[in-house]
Specification:
alpha+beta; Rossmann fold; 2 domains; six-stranded mixed sheet; six-stranded antiparallel sheet
Length: 358
């Protein structure tokens, strides 16, 4: 396996900057997800690690060795693409064993490894089939087996589950995580799906516009986002964001003034829908239900309040409120996130007291 280091690694095409100078360390055996919206540079990062793209600047190191000039085929990297990229005229066995031809592995050893890895991903019964004769989930398993058969020091997953249905994605998330733990292979997952990133990876690298916004565990990115972008990208339904202005120990948001300390100037107040609650009218924030959206085991409400329109997520499949109902809104003080509007950084020393609303 390998310890991966990026030292001021950047990639651009003339005036177009795909990845700004970036430092990143991924420990041997770690599972890291690079998460971000389309165009943020996450796939470019993956292709540089694979050797498909050469960095414009900086150094990529595998176990301390610079690999910038090492060809992709010589990096011992396994990669699973979003499209699976299986050879349509080859059987499953030949698809899985194809990378071993370039490593000079003897035929009997290659056959043994093909069967072994096929059993690992549960496609041993499909070795004689062609890709067209398999489902999307089966093709994805074959693509994973092909990446693992060469016993890579680094496994790269480029949105591998995006073509699968919701149920199969859930199954494959658990399968891939199980395999990664069993094999101990250093793994990097590139995805725009926050659920994939937060449920599969040891750490999440959140990217935006070619730069890393925050690195941490899923819990840290959710509870203590460093930037406004991270707070808005992590979490579903999305966080409620409200503009306010703080001065003289008070914060004005919408029609309300809240008790505040440690902050001044223009800020953005963040409240996650699941940290809000609805109660009887006359208690907490005054509100009126605008929309009701059943989500199965949860219900999402849009509520008009003096703070502005807020999304409120309640557990339970039963609708307690209907459109037009009057309701009160509650939120725990510690659930509030405050960001400086100019820098978009979270203000760690700030605190609010909704109880002092006037």
């Amino acid at each position: 396996m390998a310890r991966i280091e990026l030292q001021q690694v950047a990639k651009s095409w003339r005036e177009v900057v795909a990845v700004e100078p970036t430092d990143l360390v991924i420990e041997d055996g770690e599972f890291v997800a690079i998460l971000g919206p389309s165009g943020c540079g996450k796939s470019t990062m993956l292709f540089m690690l694979a050797g498909i793209y050469a960095p414009t600047a900086g150094e990529i190191r595998f176990d301390g060795h610079v690999v910038n000039a090492v060809e992709a085929r010589d990096r011992n990297v396994g990669i699973v693409f979003q499209s699976y990229a299986l050879y349509p005229h080859m059987t499953v066995a030949r698809n899985i064993g194809f990378p071993l031809k370039f490593k000079g592995v003897k035929a009997d050893e290659a056959a043994r490894r093909v069967i072994e890895v096929a059993q690992l991903v549960h496609v041993e019964e499909l070795l004689d089939r062609l890709p067209a004769e398999m489902s999307g989930g089966q093709q994805q398993r074959v693509a994973l087996a092909r990446a693992l058969v060469k016993e890579p020091q680094l496994l790269l997953l480029d949105e591998p589950l995006s073509n699968l249905d919701a149920t199969l994605r859930l199954t494959m998330r658990a399968e891939i995580r199980r395999l990664q733990r069993r094999l101990g292979v250093t793994t990097i997952l590139v995805t725009h799906d926050q659920i994939e990133a937060t449920t599969m990876a040891d750490r999440v690298v959140c990217m935006s516009k070619g730069r890393i916004e925050q690195i941490g565990t899923a819990d840290a990115l959710y509870r203590r986002p460093d930037k406004l972008f991270v707070a808005s990208f992590i979490g579903a339904p999305p966080i409620n964001l409200l503009d306010g202005r703080a001065a003289d120990g008070r914060l004005r948001v919408g029609e309300l003034t809240l008790g505040a300390s440690g902050i001044s100037g223009e800020v953005v107040l963040g409240i996650r829908p699941e940290h809000l609650g609805l109660t009887a009218p006359g208690r907490g924030l005054a509100g009126r239900i605008l929309t009701v959206e059943p989500l199965g085991r949860e219900t999402l409400y849009e509520v008009a309040t003096p703070l502005g329109s807020l999304r409120v997520l309640e557990a339970g499949s039963e609708r307690r409120w209907q459109e037009g109902d009057a309701a009160g809104g509650t939120v725990a003080d510690e659930a509030l996130l405050i960001f400086d509007k100019s820098s978009e950084r979270r203000l760690e020393s700030a605190s609010l007291a909704l109880a002092e609303a006037a």
